[in-house]
User: Fold prephenate dehydrogenase from Ectothiorhodosinus mongolicus.
Amino acid sequence: MKLRISIFGVGLIGGSWALAMRHAGMTHEIIGCSRSENHLAEAKKLGVIDRYTLDPAEAVRDADVVILAVPLGAMQSVCKQIQAHLSPQAILTDVGSAKASVIEAVRQGLGEIPPRFVPGHPIAGTEKSGVSAAFDSLFDGRRVILTPLEHTDPSAVNRVRGLWELTGAQVELMAVEEHDQVLAATSHLPHILAFGLVDCLAGMREQEEIFRYAAGGFKDFTRIASSDPVMWRDICLANREAILKIMALYQKDLQQLTTAIEQGNGDELLGIFQRAKAARDRFCL
Amino acid sequence: MKLRISIFGVGLIGGSWALAMRHAGMTHEIIGCSRSENHLAEAKKLGVIDRYTLDPAEAVRDADVVILAVPLGAMQSVCKQIQAHLSPQAILTDVGSAKASVIEAVRQGLGEIPPRFVPGHPIAGTEKSGVSAAFDSLFDGRRVILTPLEHTDPSAVNRVRGLWELTGAQVELMAVEEHDQVLAATSHLPHILAFGLVDCLAGMREQEEIFRYAAGGFKDFTRIASSDPVMWRDICLANREAILKIMALYQKDLQQLTTAIEQGNGDELLGIFQRAKAARDRFCL
Ligand SMILES: NC(=O)c1ccc[n+]([C@@H]2O[C@H](COP(=O)([O-])OP(=O)(O)OC[C@H]3O[C@@H](n4cnc5c(N)ncnc54)[C@H](OP(=O)(O)O)[C@@H]3O)[C@@H](O)[C@H]2O)c1
Ligand SMILES: NC(=O)c1ccc[n+]([C@@H]2O[C@H](COP(=O)([O-])OP(=O)(O)OC[C@H]3O[C@@H](n4cnc5c(N)ncnc54)[C@H](OP(=O)(O)O)[C@@H]3O)[C@@H](O)[C@H]2O)c1
Assistant:
């Protein structure tokens, strides 16, 4: 049986997912839907999708799987547009970077959270966006977190898991709140810190001067500040509580570092730096 | 004439400098000096230095150029040890990451700041240390900042500039305070933020969990947290005032971001992220 897959938002993530499906040799039919005919035509030209439509109702008609790969801020409106047309048999999933907010958007947009809706999030990405940045191995060897709810249909979870495994990803299940907290710490906070640092330096009088002396460490550290500002605004709004919690913790740590520097407390500084280096070397290498 | 060069501290920076000199085909004699015979013997075995001594007095005897490549915290004691033996003709220079503090250490250690002392700092490095991490192209295409004082002998500055240019580096002169402020912003602050972030996460209960979900962005962002804790403690102590100034500015910016997230102020977040992305893309690519 030929699966019919509808992708809403054929950008970096949606496009890479489509390419990975094709690469895995699946003979699905992949239909793209978003706002801009230009973007969709490009996706078709690049061989990412088989066909496209600007009409959400048409996109989900007879779809077996519908994947939402639009920005977090667009999840609810897309759900509203497909609400009357989505078949109860269809599996619905998404790739949003924060989960509680997508679940709420689905509830608002569809009027309920369907048992065949499986919230998902691939821990993979680049600082680029749009379909031209998509590539078929983006998820290979990366983790994908699914956060099914209590009433989620286990067969739908298995189907979504199976599709992700075709991309080479390693799938794990997690509670919604845990996902949002873990990602706030490992992804959202670092992005906010990097954006903040570059903006702080860009606001200084010696701006040009300053960036001229940025070495490799600075470039690596701030690479994520080249990420899509709209996506990151959406994430900050969508995962507000978890982000504020980890930011408060971090600001406390930073204050402790500041105090140690003020007091010339070399032992305390050394202790913090050694703990950090040990953790970084143990977990990231 | 065969120049005699003495390197105090044949680690990542001192060792790479020696290798670059050799690579440039100079027929200097390079003498290494530090505390550990093991380290020095390794440096000789790796072909980084011609010979070594544990005796600072012997190391500087008849030296034409003396380069201090020891940790910031060791600069003063090394100067004390060579004080009675350094010829007034010898050129003295250093590679320390903060300049006002090295100048003060030289003043304390030698009892004066000799006119042929040329403070210097290569904007190059890796998160590794020790002579085994040294390589001859470390400075190639990178900037080196010299911060001569008013009474510094211009011919000494030119000699040091010429040696650095042999490594492929681009040499610039800068005022001491300007150097320390610029580096606090582009190098010292990012390192402190990265150490702080990893330590903050390592302190959380779900530690193992959390690092498992760290993606590429996190790894790049925190790579500098693998740097030598002792060196970074020294830098924090040595460049305290400039670091505290930029940390205060950054903490204000972070508070502004926190408030914007608290208030769900998407426009403000988007504005900050867009400015940061524009600056990052303009200056770092
Ligand atoms: N980038 C990452 O690192 C990353 C990682 C994991 C998860 N995610 C998540 O993946 C999702 C997509 O991110 P991305 O990086 O792939 O973004 P992207 O490359 O900008 O793609 C977003 C796509 O959504 C479409 N779109 C935007 N607004 C829409 C709307 N109102 N209705 C219908 N389509 C709309 C856009 O096409 P049109 O302009 O034609 O509408 C575009 O194709 C987000 O939810 C994000 O949180 C991103
Ligand atoms: N790494 C960077 O990214 C970077 C970049 C620019 C500038 N710098 C500056 O370069 C200098 C050296 O840094 P590095 O990264 O090359 O460090 P490193 O690889 O650890 O080398 C330091 C060397 O100094 C010697 N040393 C340490 N304490 C000493 C003492 N009390 N007396 C004599 N020798 C001593 C050590 O050898 P023994 O153990 O045998 O004594 C070692 O060979 C520092 O001032 C740093 O601020 C570093």
Remarks:
- The mean pLDDT of chain A is 94.
- Chain A touches chain B through 94 residues (CB under 8 Å).
- The pocket of NAP (ligand 1) is lined by residues A 8-14, 34-36, 39, 69-72, 74, 77-78, 95-97, 121-122, 125, 129-130, 231 (CB under 6 Å).
- Residues 4-174 of chain A form a domain with the Rossmann fold fold (CATH 3.40.50.720).
